[in-house]
Amino acid sequence: MSQVSTKATRHRVLIVDDEESMRLLLARVLVNGLKVEATLAGTCEQALRLAGNYAYDAILLDLLMPGIGGFEVLRTIRRASPNVATPVIIVSVLSDQATKDRCARAGANAYVVKPVERNALLATVRAQIAGRSKPKPKGGA
To answer: Which of 45, 49, 52, 53 is CA-nearest to residue 70?
Structure first.
């Protein structure tokens, strides 16, 4: 586990990917583009430990990981953790609609396909964090 941050940190994001180069790339994009603090996890077990101990503002999660895998990490986070309501953004090479639908049913908030396009990733994370911090409107007008 490692952390990458800036002095202007406002939000904390957990980045879960078994490929170190991808973790570092995602962290660099988010730290430079959104001024977030990024916590990096390279295993499913490490991700669950971190997500079980701290509430993040967003979680980026790879699906194809050794061990229990990203789907089970997502389900576990949604069942019982400080991140039950935290936006989870799937970042995966899997681009088929069935996988995207399965993730949505399991509680994912957004889906980004690898290779990641910088501006699309920033827009997705920004929107998910903003949506989380806004109160839901009551009633309809």
So the answer is: 45
Distance CA 88, CA 7 (A): 25
Two tokens at 25?
A: 């790339």
Distance of CA 116 to the CA centre of its chain: 13
32 to 16, 48, 113, 122, 128: CA distances (angstroms): 18, 26, 20, 10, 17
Q: Are 88 and 132 in contact (CB under 8 A)?
A: no
Confidence of residue 9 (pLDDT cuts 50, 70, 90): very low
Cα–Cα distance for residue pair 113/53, rounded to 1 Å: 28
Short-list 24, 40, 22, 21, CA closest to 32: 24
Is the pLDDT assigned to residue 3 strictly greater than 50?
yes
What is the predicted pLDDT for the residue at 136? 46
User: Is 0.70 surpassed by the pTM of this model?
Assistant: yes
Close Cβ partners of 24 (under 8 Å, ≥ 6 residues apart) = 4, 40
